[in-house]
Each structure stands twice: as structure tokens, then as C-alpha cells.
Design goal:
The chain is built from twelve helices and 14 strands. It has 352 residues and is an alpha/beta fold. It has two domains: 180 residues, Isopropylmalate Dehydrogenase (3-Layer(aba) Sandwich); 166 residues, Isopropylmalate Dehydrogenase, CATH 3.40.718.10. The strands form three sheets. It has a ten-stranded mixed sheet with strand order 2-1-3-12-11-4-5-10-8-9, with helices on both faces. A two-stranded antiparallel sheet has the order 6-7. The chain has a two-stranded parallel ribbon with strand order 13-14. β1, α1 and β2 form a beta-alpha-beta unit. α1 runs parallel beside α12, α8 runs parallel beside α9 and α10 packs antiparallel against α11. It is globular. It starts with a strand and ends with a helix. Bound molecules: nicotinamide-adenine-dinucleotide.
């Protein structure tokens, strides 16, 4: 039986997760779903953005379905109590080192992109981002006061060889199932940590002779993503570059509300969540786009439960709902049927 921890989180999290759970249940599979608070909701419930019970539940589950965390009202809390810390900690605790973020443009939404349709139509890109290392975790870090009284902020970019190696293997293995191209993104001309990244990627590539490896500096990659994004198949990069590039890639597809993500450990246990945040500006209004979360459930079935059939069923149901003209406000264009978050969930269930 599939054991899934459901962590709705904050803002629009509960609304979008409710739709994803509705779709998951509609598959009629045997499953156990257990819900727990995280982020601001965790702080409210237990004084901790990652309550011990929530972490225990997540550790015992096969997979975690997460909504989003964060709200401006928590911005004044000490850093360790802020919702985002809960997210960083659960990724670290579950050893979720590989973040998979597909950017796929549905034909029905080609006009929603700010780029010309010919530049983006048919886009099918997978960004593989390292998630537990890099400047977000490196020590030393902090803000201190220097001898002259001036304050100084410090963060440290660090990567060791084994961290680079394991994310490299994930990228090459995904490329083997796709178009067999990996572009490794670094800043090897300036940063030693990424000079090592490049060396290790070259070493790993010898184990995958069928895969073509290329390298790109991150500034150029940012430019190429908007100039000619279809040149990429799998892009692999570190935590901070991946954070920025995957948001950029998401915009190629028109709305951040469409993009799922998966974060995997070495045994394909995963946490699945939309790529967007908690959107406090629209929370509680039943207007958010639930498709990224619903598509995250498809990724869960594919990567953790090895159930390609039901993953494709969900993806096709989403395509059908779009083809039938259903649109939430963020992807609405004239002539379509504007629906609420819950109605979009119903449309996907009906299409199933
Ligand atoms: P955001 O992704 O929450 O929102 C950015 C914009 O996109 C907003 O205008 C929002 O309304 C819109 N949007 C996002 N998801 C949408 C959806 N499903 N449907 C329709 N519109 C959608 O980013 P932000 O505003 O920078 O951050 C808001 C909060 O979310 C902050 O507290 C931030 O820390 C947090 N955050 C959380 C995560 C996460 O949980 N993974 C990721 C990013 C930001």
C-alpha cells in the first residue's frame, strides 16, 4: 500500500493540495494518506516550522506531497522559526538531494508564454538541481561585526566530490530516458567550487558514452534559456544556480502555476510539490492554479511508485481539461472557461 504524507503548508497550499488529493483518490488505488502541518502552519501548531511529528510522519512515508510554505506575516520571526527553514530542513533530513523540475509547454498554453510561440512551442526541458549543498548550507555563514564596527555578511559556496557525483548520475540517468543530452551549468571561470563541479561531470560522463555532455556558464545559460530554450534536454546545476534558472525556465511556459517538481533521495523516496510558493496574495480565494500540484502527483507515481500508467493518466487528464478550455485566472485568455481552483480539480477528475 502506498503511504503518503500530505503536508499542505501555508497560503494557497491547503487549497491546491486538496485538489491534488482529490485527483489521487479518483485513481482508486490502495493508499494511506496522513496529513501534518509544516511551515507557518507548523509554527502555529507546535512552535516549529518542521514539528517533530511532521518529520516522523514524512520519514515513515514512501512519499511526501507538499503544498507550499511561507507568508509575509512570519518575516519578523527569528530565521530558524521562519516557514522556509522548515522546507530546507525537511529536504536535508530526508536527504532529498536531487530536485527535478520539468519545463514543458502545453500546446494549448503556447500563447500564455511571454516569448514568441515559435521559440517555446514544443519545449520539453528537465532541470536537475542539487538541493542539499552549495551556498545555502555551506559554513561559515552569518552576519558579524568587524573590528571597525562595520557589519559583514558571509555565506560559503562548497561542494564535495561525492555530492557532485550523485547529482551527476541522476542527470545522466534521466537523459538516458530522454534525448541523451546533458548541459552542466557552472561558473568554472570564477568559482573553484564549480571548477570541481565541471571536472567531476566530465569524469561521470565516461560512464554514459551515449549521452552528449556540454558545459555552460550560468550567465550564458540564463541568456540561452530565453533566446533558444529548445536547445536543452537535461540541464544539471548546483543549488543556487538551479534555484534561479528553474524559476526562469518556469516562465517560458507561461505560468508558474503549471509546473510540478520532485525531490528525490538515493532510493527514489521523494517529496513532490509545485514549483511555486504559497502565493499569500491570492490565498483563501479559491483562485489558485492547482495543476502544478496535480502534476506533482503524476511525478510521484512515476518516480517513487514506478507507476507510469497512472502518471500518464493524470498528465492526459490535465491536457484534456486544458483542451476543453478550462483555465484558472493565471492562465486565462479570452474565449476560455475561467474556473476556480476547486473547479479545475473537478475538471481533471472528470477527465480521468
Ligand atoms: P510565489 O510563487 O508564492 O508567488 C509569485 C506570484 O505567482 C504571485 O503573484 C502569486 O499569486 C503567483 N502564483 C504562485 N503560484 C500560483 C498558482 N498556483 N496559481 C496562480 N498564481 C500563482 O512567490 P513569492 O510571492 O515570491 O513568495 C510568497 C511566499 O512563498 C513567501 O513567503 C516565500 O518565501 C514563499 N515561497 C515558498 C516556496 C515553497 O514553498 N516551495 C517557494 C517560493 C516561495
Amino acid at each position: 500500500m502506498m503511504k503518503i504524507a500530505v503536508l499542505p503548508g501555508d497560503g494557497i497550499g491547503p487549497e491546491i493540495v486538496a485538489q491534488a488529493v482529490k485527483v489521487l483518490r479518483a485513481l482508486g488505488l490502495e493508499m494511506q494518506l496522513d496529513e501534518a502541518p509544516i511551515g507557518g502552519a507548523g509554527y502555529e501548531a507546535a512552535g516549529d516550522p518542521l514539528p517533530a511529528d511532521t518529520l516522523a510522519l514524512a520519514k515513515a512515508a514512501d512519499a511526501v506531497l507538499l503544498g507550499a510554505v511561507g507568508d509575509w506575516k512570519y518575516d519578523s520571526l527569528p530565521r530558524d522559526m521562519r516557514p522556509e527553514r522548515g522546507l530546507l530542513r525537511i529536504r536535508k533530513e530526508l536527504n532529498l538531494f536531487a530536485n527535478l523540475r520539468p519545463a514543458l509547454l502545453y500546446a494549448e498554453l503556447a500563447s500564455a508564454s511571454t516569448l514568441k510561440p515559435e521559440v517555446v512551442s514544443g519545449l520539453d526541458l528537465m532541470i536537475v538541481r542539487e538541493l542539499t549543498g552549495d551556498i545555502y548550507f555551506g559554513q561559515p555563514r552569518g552576519i558579524s561585526t568587524l573590528a571597525n564596527g562595520e557589519r559583514e555578511g558571509i555565506n560559503t559556496m562548497r561542494y564535495n566530490e561525492s555530492e557532485i557525483r550523485r547529482i551527476g548520475h541522476v542527470a545522466f540517468q534521466i537523459a538516458m530516458k530522454r534525448n541523451k543530452k546533458v548541459c552542466s551549468v557552472d561558473k568554472a571561470n570564477v568559482l573553484e567550487a564549480t571548477e570541481l563541479w565541471r571536472q567531476v561531470m566530465i569524469e561521470i560522463s565516461r560512464e554514459y558514452p551515449e549521452v552528449e555532455l556540454s558545459h555552460m556558464y550560468v550567465d550564458n545559460a540564463a541568456m540561452q534559456l530565453v533566446r533558444a530554450p529548445k536547445q536543452f534536454d537535461v540541464m544539471v546545476t548546483g543549488n543556487i544556480f538551479g534555484d534561479i534558472l528553474s524559476d526562469e525556465a518556469s516562465m517560458l511556459t507561461g505560468s508558474i502555476g503549471m509546473l510540478p517538481s520532485a525531490s528525490l533521495d538515493a532510493n527514489n523516496k521523494g517529496m513532490y510539490e509545485p514549483s511555486h510558493g504559497s502565493a499569500p496574495d491570492i490565498a483563501g480565494k479559491d483562485v489558485a492554479n492547482p495543476l502544478a500540484t496535480i502534476l506533482s502527483v503524476a511525478m510521484m507515481l512515476r518516480y517513487t511508485f514506478n507507476d507510469e500508467t497512472n502518471a500518464v493518466r493524470i498528465e492526459n487528464a490535465v491536457k484534456q481539461a486544458l483542451a476543453e478550455g478550462y483555465r484558472t485566472a493565471d492562465i486565462y485568455t479570452d474565449g476560455c472557461k475561467k474556473v476556480k481552483c476547486s473547479e479545475m480539480g473537478d475538471a481533471v477528475v472528470a477527465a480521468l
